[in-house]
Amino acid sequence: MAKFQLDMEIECDFDLLGIGSHVGSHRMAWELNRIFGWQLVFDQEIDSRSKDVETRHIVLRYCNDEEGLDIALILNRVPDGVLATGAASLDYLLRLGAGILELEDVINRIRKSNLVTLVTKLNPEQAGALEAMFELDR
Q: Which residues pair with 16 in a beta bridge?
């Protein structure tokens, strides 16, 4: 019997950035709030399982319906593992609703922070974060 492989591209309604930093999640949220005027606050914890180890990752979120903003800062690296295996060297994931903010401007403003060592645009599928990003909307 022949095997068929479904090959389709998943279209995301968000952009994903990876951030490297030496500070804790509360301090990173405070810095992003200062830079952009957001109000990131604790929203939830999401679970991830890889290599038989379950990890919990903090999610801080800011939603503004008037401006159409839905921003989530996710702690990617925890002592027992990572949420996005393809972005294992990055401490945080920043999910931004697609097309709402000018992505290059966001990246450039974050790069100016002394608390950030690296900011890069990620492909959610290649980073291994797609399922976790969809879980945020449940």
A: 95, 122
Contact 136, 72 (CB under 8 A): yes
pLDDT > 80? residue 2: no
- Within 10 Å of residue 59's Cβ, how many Cβ atoms? 21
pLDDT of residue 97: 85
CA 51-54-57 angle, to 5 degrees, is 120
Contact 61, 72 (CB under 8 A): yes
Report the distance separating Cα 63 and Cα 32, nearest Å. 14
User: Do residues 61 and 41 make contact, with C-beta atoms less than 8 angstroms apart?
Assistant: yes
CB atoms within 10 A of CB 23: 16
Q: What is the pLDDT of residue 136?
A: 76
The token pair that represents 10 in the structure block: 């998943």
